[in-house]
Amino acid sequence: MNYSIDWLLTRYSFQASPKVQQNFIAGPNHHRAAVLLPILSGANGLELVLTQRAAHLRHHPGQISFPGGRLEPGELSQQAALREAEEEIGLAPAQVQLLGALPHQPTSTGFVIEPWLALIEPPKEWLLQHDEVADLFHAPLKELWEERRWQQWNWQHKGKQLPVHFLHWRQQLIWGATAAILYRLKQQIGTPF
């Protein structure tokens, strides 16, 4: 068995967590954000589309991330994820098949990220909004899921010890909320072997 769309659909629907709250209410000190985890069928099996944030951004400059951002007033998280993906990388909502929500991911900077897993039909050309996105790349799941690429360190923050995941992929270091979301997805759906 390999990393195929059928495998992903079977594993995600079988392992989907009933505890995911789609109408999550962030606390008064949190900002709600939504991200899209776009997966496509590529030359190397299933590939995840990741972006590199622009270096001048206030939050997480230069880090590897998913397309996404803050929710606008009255906006549902899945709407925000789709809107941000279209604005940041030119992925039209018609090219996206949402599979469902993943568990929320709080950050140390006061955000609660609401991730959405999706299968996509990539556009003929990615249209990056360079004010926010410096680069875009496709990362094969079979590479991202290799155990040798993962590390976990404990980080002291505001009197608490927090686990921080790090994923080494090619020349990229993926860490923070992006790595935490990927780690939880990896644990949730497993591998085809």
TrEMBL record:
The keyword Hydrolase applies. The keyword Endoplasmic reticulum does not apply. InterPro entries: CoAse, Nudix_hydrolase, NUDIX_hydrolase-like_dom_sf, NUDIX_hydrolase_CS, NUDIX_hydrolase_dom. It comes from the Bacteria. It holds the Pfam family NUDIX. Keywords: Hydrolase, Magnesium, Manganese, Metal-binding. Its cofactor is Mn(2+); Mg(2+). CDD domains: NUDIX_CoAse_Nudt7. PROSITE patterns: NUDIX, NUDIX_BOX. NCBIfam families: PRK10707.1. This is CoA pyrophosphatase.
